[in-house]
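Intended use. Records like the one below are meant for learning the mapping from a protein sequence to its folded structure. Do not use them to infer anything beyond what is encoded.
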Amino acid sequence: MNGLSIEWLTTSAPQTICMKTRFACLWSLVLCLSVTGSFAQIDTAKPRVIMIGAHPDDCDINAGGTAALFASMGYAVKFLSLTNGDAGHQNEKGPKLAARRLAEAQEAAKRLGITYDVLNNHDGELLPSLEVRLQVIRKIREWQADIVFSSRPNDYHPDHRYAGILVQDAAYMVAVPNIDPETPALKKNPVFLYFQDRFQHPNPFQPDIAIDISSVFDQKINALDAHESQVYEWLPWIGHYLDQVPKNKSDRKIWLSQSRSIVITPEVKSMLVKWYGRERAEVVKHAEAFQICEYGAQPSNDEVRKLFPMLKSN
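Structure written out for the chain above:
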């Protein structure tokens, strides 16, 4: 850049250049490296999306429809599970269960048209440690993410809570070059968003964006169907409704679509009206909602529409 390098400026500049001038040159170079005229981290008109959950199936449940919409429009989407899911079953456990859940995640990824990564941390033992925080920072950086989704740190499951904290702790740090310098820092802090949840304390979920997923709801259910160990075995067992799960595969999908249909709350409905208009909002059958995290970039309404192109279809 202008024939100068950071190494030259810091170690090899002629002695005739005073330290003040050298510092000014170095600072100008840093600013040039930090500023981007594009909305995306890399030279593309399509922002890159990463969704982060504690377990293989969390992202599918919370935002599988939104992911399917992004993927159908040619956007790069990755799901990341922070644990390998090796504890979430009533009969299976350990490496065998982890291998099964990884295979299920990869099958779900095929059905959604996305990428799925699973970290080898134990299920039920996730902690907001520096080690795992750095894993999260690296994954967000490697994906060159512009949009990051995860759970709020309000949840019944400690893994879910700590996943939310870990992603919050990674926000801002993903753009700090001296944090894990082996992985190049992002040009700017992404937009971070929370998945919708039902928990009221210490504060309830407040939607900022609502996505109409009616057109891809069946695709979302098809992806969830790939997580057989969870949606047909473990979750019904721990929730005491295993007797309701049909034996026939086709009946199972019908049951799954009914049990995984989320009621559109008045708060979510108001966001559908905001982003799609009242006429469209009145006919939405299925929606996913998200809250913008204060720790990431704060997009304007116009920037939200650039990040979420499906909102333009109103």
